[in-house]
Amino acid sequence: MSVRSELLRLGLRLFLKRRGHGVDVSSWRRNMSKMERLVPRPPARVETIEVNAGRVTLQRVATRVSRPERHVLYLHGGAYVSGAPVYYRHFTWRIAESLGANVWVLTYRLAPEHPFPAALDDALAGYFWLVENTPAARMIVVMGDSAGAGLTLSLLLKLRDCGKTLPDAAVAMSPWTDLALTGPSLKSNAAADPMLNAADLSELAGYYLGGADPRTPYASPLYGDTAGLPPVMIQVGSDEILRDDAVRMAEKLRADNPRSRLEVWRRMPHVWQLFVPLLPEARGAMAQIRTFISDVQSQPNNLAGR
Questions:
Q1: Which of 21, 94, 171, 225 has the fewest Cβ atoms nearer than 10 Å?
Q2: Active-site residue identified among 5, 82, 146, 154
Q3: d(Cα 201, Cα 180) in Å, to the nearest integer?
Q4: Annotation says 82 is catalytic
Q5: Is the peptide bond before 112 cis (omega within 30 degrees of 0)?
Q6: How far apart are the C-alpha atoms of 199 and 145, rounded to whole Å?
Q7: 173 and 163 in contact (C-beta within 8 Å)?
């Protein structure tokens, strides 16, 4: 554990962890908008282009090392009620540079205005557009954080069930996989988690589900059949209330595909990878993701999609 990570934990606990006063989505979004100017911009060598991809919008992020044959579809977090590509501009270019890929960040519809399955429908539309419009692609990876990581896994299930081409791999950072909220760590890590509050998750799940069954696999991938899915890497912090969402999901994935991987990082907060400019642990996590993707690509006979 680095000193920086401990300071980050303290800052998150003081300034971000909610105290059970309910979730005001409008205020949450306004506060995020105020923080937008503080999100570092990419360096000049990074190219960012907004692309109209039919009924959805994608932001293409590429660097000088991005290869035309390697692509990442990125699904952002925000508990399905907030978030946008702009809040990830300090992070997505680092994915592009680390993986030598073109990163496509999806703008998907948000709850409660657009409840389930709107986000999944948009993820499908973005993925289909990417497959059809990157003819040189030899590898496509889907990657997401938090709710976006859960959406990543739901997308895999939906593609498999529809008989569509699957991505070659997926990466899920601190995934929210169980909107029925049955994970033991929701209680056992309630005091240790420096960022998330389990009471908020119940309200947020209701906003997204809009009355749908919380155990439907396309909303809660933990309840899906993982047979036939590509290798998935899951990273989670040991103190997260969502730790068991990640651990239980990884157990299912690895039972059907031994190349799937789980990493539980000691005392890391929710989606610590986003703090890559500050934390050595975030840089270490990114290096592990790069190794995972390289390992998948080194065994082309086992790729799921092509």
A1: 21
A2: 146
A3: 10
A4: no
A5: yes
A6: 20
A7: no
